[in-house]
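Structure, all three chains, one model.
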Amino acid sequence: MKRRKNIKTVIYHGSIWIIGLLMIYPIFWTIASSLKPENEIFRNSASLIPSIFKWENYAQGWQGFGGLSFSTFFLNSGFVTTMVVIGTLFSSALVAFGFARVKFRFRTPLFVCMIITLMLPSQVTLIPQYILFHNLGWVNTYMPLIVPAFIGGTPFFIFLMIQFIRGIPHELDEAAYMDGCSTFGIFWRVILPLTTPALATVAIFSFYWTWDDFMTPLIYLNDTKLYTVALGLQMFSDPSSVSAWGPMFAMSVASILPQLLIFMFFQKYLVEGITAGGVKG
Amino acid sequence: MSKRSKKWLLMMAVFMLMVLAACGSNKDSAGESSGDSDEVNLRMMWWGSQERHDRTLEVIDLYMEENPHVNISAEFSGWDGYWEKIATQAAGGNLPDIIQMDYKYLAEYVGRGLLADMNPYVENGSLDLSDVEDLYIDGGKIDGKLYALNIGANAHAIAVDNAILEEAGVEPLEPGYTWEDLQEIGKEISDNTDDNVYGIHPHAGIMGFKHYLRQHNQWLYNEEGTDLGYDDDQLLIDYLQITVDMLESGAAAPPDVFMAAGASIEQSPIVNGDTAILADIHSNQIIAMEAAAGRQIDLMLQPSLEGGELGHYIKPGQFFSIAETSQQQEEAAKFLDFFTNNIEANEILNAERGVPIATSVREHLKEQADESGTKMFEYVELAEEYSREIDPPDAQGSTEIETLFQNEVADPIYYGEISPEDAAANFRTKATDILSKNK
Amino acid sequence: MAEQVQVSGQSKGKLHKQWKTDLVGLAFIAPWLIGFLCFIIGPMIASLYFSFTNYDLLTEPTWIGLGNYIQMFTNDVRFIQALKVTLIFVFVSVPLKLAFALFVAMLFNTKRKGVGIYRTLYYIPSILGGSVAIAVVWKQLFGRDGAINDILSVFGIPSISWVTSPDFALSTLILLVVWQFGSPMLIFLAGLKAIPTELYEAAAVDGANPFHQFFKITLPMLSSVIFFNLVMQTIQGFMTFTQSFLITQGGPMDKTLFYAVYLYEKAFGHFDMGYASALAWVLLIICAIFTAFIFRSAGSWVHYESEGGK
């Protein structure tokens, strides 16, 4: 019996590692390229071992552009992303509770409106939106990046939270109500703790999407001192003449690190959901 | 209602008011800049990579040191997204004063009245072009008006890996070689080298076709830009047939080998030594190509047409334009003057954008250029000898024509899915349709 | 179903009570509602207006009525091609991606040692997302000299360039998207965590085998999350842009011309924002039909703990 269990464990871990290698091959490739001299990145590019380790790629990449280093970009990204994550957690939890638990009139049509906004490609609303933000004086500030998060600009998260809240048994609300809890009290003390796994998911996604997005900052930020990491990465590449590939890969690797850290930090709340969600079905 | 939910409602109300207030307020803070009488604020925007950013910023600093009353704010990015940003800013009436412009988009922006004519500033001496030959400026003119200033000259070329030619026992190409020579040489290289090394990475694109038309003394667009400029479809058929023949004879690599590179010069098979010749590139791309390959690659003229005209011309690699909406056009022109003529500035720039247009600057920089750079300088000089005047910039709608050519002419030809005859006829029908909108 | 949240304990008439519920509801959704009214609806209406105009981005739009829509349905083969590519993409990639994500999520829904690391490992492809690096990597991986061909050559399969072959380009992109299954996987994981373990324990006591457990417990308990993933992946599938744009630019010969790529090309490449807006609204309608269909079907298979507590 014990032996069979051992074999099972070996198969489990073994197969996960083999598929896992496929999953992270691109990371290895990126790391390898970030250490290669320029003339090896595209020649014999399948090789994962650089002939010499060119650490200067990292130094050169971090140096940035004309005295504006990646320290600035990382700080900027850190600020913007933190604000967006906070805003998204705040707005998506609140709005989702409203849709999922409060039976107000027009809630279905409003919900439909929200889902519909997801279906219009952003390319065609970009220009009117720019003009709007320009008239508000928000161009070249972080407002167009941050404010939408606070006002539920990503219905994806709201919908996600709605689905999770709908999965929580009603008896809990009712019991809390009997104990004299207000609606907000129910939200704050009963529902919110139970949605920890969902909130962790929202945090991970909103972090990654914001960190990775270069289009919005590119359109709305003019002053290079305000630029984010994703924009910094894009500034290495110019297919019409020369691109700085080595430094670009180096900074790509650097840019992945915070995302990994955030993921590892929040994923433990995914697990903690077990105990918190340990309510009867 | 319980006390708590009242408190909550109140909080929400305050929050709402705050957002609404933010929505409605500070309309005025938008158009800061301009302002004080003596201070000049210029916004300048370009795309590029690390080297260009560093060098350009240094030149801007130099200019601001010499002209303390001028403040230039640099807004730079990579290539991706640059054109959306420009288009969005144009739509929002918020274009920077100085814009780096590409040949491909010039007509589209000029046609919509977004760029300023620089001729008045040339005439009043703010922008001194006396040291620049017309050949280098004409590419930025439309109907005689100077909408864009060339900041780095280019020429069409083919890239040749002479080491492979030598290995195959083929004589190096000499200026004046013909299309037929190219086909033969390609075949010889393919035959005399390893199975997975080919002679030519072919190019049946619109850039090559334009070159071919010039050799027949024709142009892709008519003068008004309302129709195609060539009447005989046989020209396009013959042009495509060259590629078809090369693919059939084995002179050219099969599409599997070269299609994946797309527009990326570093991923071209010539970098990996899979082909000896890459047809149809721009001369400034040699620098990226040699850097990625880590070995010698040379530039050569496009094949000539027996008894035909000269096809080459000096092509503006990129421009600086001044926005029509700019309040400081003259100051912008002065900066462009500095950018073009100042030796110290150009030493910093180091011809990174292509060969400088001012003669004295060019002579000076040529001496200090590195190996790749020298190739580029020498090649543009060579191309100049084989050049005649540039045709007018592309018509409005040319970006759409380019997509059409890529999708329905070049790609199917590579894959042998269409005959040159059908491709030519189809191209004429659809291109005529697109261009007729300009009438 | 009974009133879920009673705002007032006293009976002051049903109407009054409803009014209060409305107020509370609106207060909760206020953040979104304000954003919607301030920043979303205006630009949406603007784009609807543009779709009836000839608008080149840089000059004032001119009204042409249904011109763009007529052009699209009568005289635009690329529109048809884009629609075809996108539909194939959605129908193939969404089920594949969801199945894979669910499978992996279940593998990782244990307390075994090292799952944390595995989860991270399998999430990495999704972090790489739409960066410039991934385009280069993918081209390298599936290029003629790439790693995939190296592996296949062991089995005697000849090398081809997968990314740019007219026959395989779309499949390669589908593979890329399926490979980035991290986000539905996480959502499944969060959903799995919410299933009380007692259910499985009880089932095990009753002698149910793992298959039984999967169909009788996991799937029904997870249905609301499956529903979410299905809706969102379908909508996002229709909007897919980055992969095609960065790697194939819609080529070769429009074989990977995703709808959003075509739309982008029209808007910013060809300066035809009017036409692009019309394309966008047609996409919205198509997308809405599919989504409405999923929502309608939901009644029969989606089970909510809170509402179906039977």
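The mean pLDDT of chain B is 84.
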